[in-house]
Amino acid sequence: MTSSEIAIIGSGINSLVAAAELALAGKQVCLIERQDRLGGFIHSSQRTLPGFVHDTFSSWHPLFVSGGAYQSLGQELHSRGLEYCNADGAVTASVAADPRTGAQRVVIAHRDPSVTAAGFDTPEDDGAYLAMLEDLGRNAGTVFGAFGAELRSFKQVLKIAFGALKRGKIKGTEAFVRDSVMSGRNYLRSRFDGWEADQLWSPWLLHAGLGPDQATGGVMLPVMAMSMHAHGLPVVKGGASNFVAAFESLLREKGVRILLDTDVDKVLVEAGKVVGLKTSNGPIDTSTVLANVSPQALYSRLLSQAPEGAAKAAVRYQNGRGAMQIHLALDKPVEWLDARLNTVPLVHVSNGSDSTGIACAQAEGGLLPAEPTVVVGQQCVLDPSRAPLGKATLWLQLQEVPFAPKGDAAGALAVDDGWSAELKEQYMERVLSRLEQFAPGTRDSVLAWDILAPTDLASENPNAVKGDPYGGSAELFQNLLWRPFPEAAGHRTPVKGLWHIGASTHPGPGLSGGSGHLVAQRLNKSSKP
Question: Which of 15, 163, 213, 279 has the largest count of CB atoms under 10 Å?
Answer without folding.
Answer: 15
